[in-house]
Amino acid sequence: MASVNLDPGAANLPYEPDVDIRDFIDLQAVMQNYELGPNGALILAADLVATRINEIQEALEEINPDYAILDTPGQIELFAYRQSGPFIVSNLQSEGTTILFLFDSTLVSTPSNFVSIALLAASIQLRLKMPQVSVLSRSDLLGPNLKKVMSWASSTVKLEEALSAEKRGSYELDTTLLRDLVRAGIAYELYPVSATTREGILDLSAVITRQLNQGEENEE
Amino acid sequence: MASVNLDPGAANLPYEPDVDIRDFIDLQAVMQNYELGPNGALILAADLVATRINEIQEALEEINPDYAILDTPGQIELFAYRQSGPFIVSNLQSEGTTILFLFDSTLVSTPSNFVSIALLAASIQLRLKMPQVSVLSRSDLLGPNLKKVMSWASSTVKLEEALSAEKRGSYELDTTLLRDLVRAGIAYELYPVSATTREGILDLSAVITRQLNQGEENEE
Lengths: 220, 220
What we know:
Two copies of one chain form a homodimer.
Chain A: E1 2-5, E2 19-20, H1 27-33, H2 38-51, H3 53-63, E3 68-71, H4 76-79, H5 84-91, E4 99-104, H6 111-128, E5 132-137, H7 146-154, H8 156-165, H9 175-184, E6 190-192, H10 201-219
Parallel strand pairs in A: 1-2, 1-3, 4-5, 5-6
Helix pairs in contact in A: 1-2, 2-5, 7-8
């Protein structure tokens, strides 16, 4: 297993990446050389990641791992909604690719926030065009609410009921549209994990492996 | 009409805001005082915007405009998917609020990218919990493709056909789910505008005014 940091804007990482884009792109240098403020520099740096795909590839080939886990730029808009994200995802050579989309547990504690993140997940999957697994990260932070949140993923009926019970303004997303989105299956197959308690890590590994193997079979 | 810049990370604005969060939050100072890199500073600055809501409110009251247009932080994740966005949207006093969600014309030129942005729009509306209007910005950049893109918004049949015709990998968003999302009406009512050619500005103003008036009527 090799870890790859693709976030040029990362300040302190809680792990030591085996391959680090910050060895190829220096954010402070970008700010100075292009005379950009922090926001402009982050956008340009995220775009520049795509231009360093060969360096990343070579560094990975030297390690030659069975699996590589890539940590993408912290802000979705710098990666998925710009050219560089889809480009990197499609062009980094591998026998298989799976996107892990994180439902952050602090963002999904109400039914409408849960559906909001599920919609974001679907949006990202359409942009990156790869198999994708939804992961409920930092599951330990939900405490007793974990069971409730997981029920919204496993049962469209429970999710519909929770949305109806939620106090909602009359001007929000059209109720019929919301109901139809839920019934279409917008929120499904969610895997809870906690880096702190290690809960769910084995199950998630199994899902990823199965999905990557399926990918190989389908290509044969 | 008053313009308000709520983006502490904005470097150069193509307009002169009547109220500017950068008068209350200095991004460079945030970087220094909190010893943060550009990314950390942008996140903190975006969060700090919510703490300055009174200053923004007072500055607006001094101007006392009929309408105010607020430019939110450039990256959706710094606003909508953190507490400060929903907080500001709910707590800034006004007789009515409408969110303008921009479909950037460079991001929606293929059917799957179009649906991806429509999903993002729905996700945002669920987070901000306000009436929302979808605007196709920089419509002039689409040239002859504008008609095609607008047809995807006005006709679910045309959008379904375009998605079927699009070359898509077998591992992307489930075909049935995608079809159901389209049929649920995920992409509808899109208003094209161009700041360059002025196309669509009058129509958009009419839509916004109508929506704000409807809001007032519903509250009576």
